[in-house]
Amino acid sequence: MGKAQDACRVTARKDPCWRENKLSMDCLSDNAYDKGFCQQEFANYRSCKGFWNSVSWARKREGLYPLIPNTEEERKAFKKKYAETGEVPTFV
Fold first, then answer.
1. In this structure, are residues 14 and 66 in contact, taking their beta carbons and an 8 Å threshold?
2. CB under 8 A, 24+ apart: contacts of 45-48
3. Which of 41, 69, 73, 89 pairs as cysteine with 81 (C-beta 3.0–4.6 A)?
4. Is there a contact between 58 and 44 (Cβ–Cβ < 8 Å)?
5. pLDDT digits over 51-63, tens only?
6. Which of 4-8, 11-15, 60-64 is the least confident region?
7. Higher-confidence residue: 56 or 12?
8. Helix, strand, or coil here: 64?
9. Residue range 18-41: average pLDDT?
C-alpha cells in the first residue's frame, strides 16, 4: 500500500481508541446494526475519545509533542496517572 493510503488508515498505533472503535463496530455487525444493543460500547468509545482529546489539548497548550503518546506502555502510564490524580496528565 502506498504512503497516502497508510496516512489516512486508522491503526492502533495512530488511534489510542482503536480497540474501543473496533468493539463498537463489531457489536453493530453482530447485532444487525441495531444501535440499541451497543450503547455500552458506544459509551466506552466516547469516554476514550474524550480522555485522549483532553490529553492532546493539554499537551498542545504546554507545547509538548507528540500530542498523543505513541506506545501502548506510555498510554497505560498516562491512564494510570489520570486514575491516581484525577487530572488530565501532560507528561508521565
1. no
2. 45/17, 45/20, 45/21, 48/16, 48/17, 48/20
3. 89
4. no
5. 999 999 999 999 9
6. 4-8
7. 56
8. coil
9. 97
Cell of 30: 453482530
C-alpha cell at 88: 488530565
| pLDDT exceeds cutoff 80 at 3 | no
What is the C-alpha separation between 55 and 64, in angstroms, rounded? 11
Task: Name the nearest CA neighbour of 11 among 55, 77, 68.
Answer: 68
CB under 8 A, 24+ apart: contacts of 77-84 = 79/51, 82/51
Which residues in 3-26 are b (16+ Cβ under 10 Å) and which e?
eeeeeeeeeeeebbbeebbebbee
Q: How many residues would you count in the chain?
A: 92
Residue 74's Cβ-count burial label (10 Å; 0-12, 13-18, 19+) is middle
Three-state secondary-structure class, residue 30: helix
